[in-house]
Design brief:
Layout: E1 3-6, E2 17-22, H1 31-40, H2 42-49, E3 59-63, E4 71-76, H3 87-104, E5 109-113, H4 124-139, E6 145-149, H5 163-173, H6 177-186, H7 194-210, H8 223-233, H9 238-244, H10 249-257, H11 265-274, H12 279-288, H13 298-309, H14 314-323
Parallel strand pairs: 1-6, 2-4, 2-5, 5-6
Antiparallel strand pairs: 3-4
Amino acid sequence: MPLRIVRQDITKIECDAIVNAANSSLLGGGGVDGAIHKAAGPKLLEECRGLHGCETGDAKITRGYNLPAKYVIHTVGPVYNDGRHGEEELLISCYEKSLQIAADHDCESIAFPLISSGVYGYPKPEAFRVAVDTCENFLKDHEMDISICVFDKRGYDIGKQYDSALEEFIDQTYVDESEKRFARFRNMPYGAGTAKSIIVDEEVCCQEYTMGAMPDFELDESFSEMVLRKIDEKGMTDPQCYKKANIDRKLFSKIRSDPHYNPSKKTAVALGIALELPMREFEELLRKAGLALSNSNLFDVIIKFFVSKGIYNIFEINEALFSKDLETL
């Protein structure tokens, strides 16, 4: 997956490079900086001494030593004052310089902390927005798997105009499975040995529906064929489609080469969003893969909200999913 949001200790991520939110001396400090130096071991500090510091907004690379990552890219984020002293430009530069260094060293994967959002005081929602936007722009012209580690969820807010509308939609649409089973059981006649069997059957039924399972039937057009037809109809190229869907080239090549490819639900949803399909066509695409959206699945309800509103930015959708502790696309 090219860009993902994770809640994970960056020192434990297995990737080609991790980014260290360093101070200008590059000699270690607190927070993420201290944790990376501790996990990497003393040889990291020894190499950093030879780099002679780093300017704010710039980045430098070292080996990863005892870390799972091959490299550590050290970047110095801005101290936040009031947002009117070039802080955003410097923060963007941190991400751009780090990504370029990673590309120059043939890295296929990189993980970032939320730079400057700790003791440097950059507001978390704004720091997150800069991170996502800058990485998204980079991925338009590059192939790389990027992780943004948001370890501390406190103070996290997607900060979108549609936030309250999303909450209202969830309140009106989302049906918890346990509530649905209880309501159905409550209205059924009670008989010896009947209630238990009804509940068991209901659980099986609800589980299948929540997973999006659909009955097997012959389709005149496969999922892959519909995706490729829609790409042609919209005048898109393959890279435009899979980058917008936030899926990698290798996965898309399977869809392109196999007319009977069976996608995961995440992949099917991501491609429907990339193709900006209206709800009727979006649901038709899922049916081609034997899938469906359910009001008893919070992930599905959030997807329904964005598609129904015509909001097809997958990174914004992922922010909403992340804010609900759901797996992102």
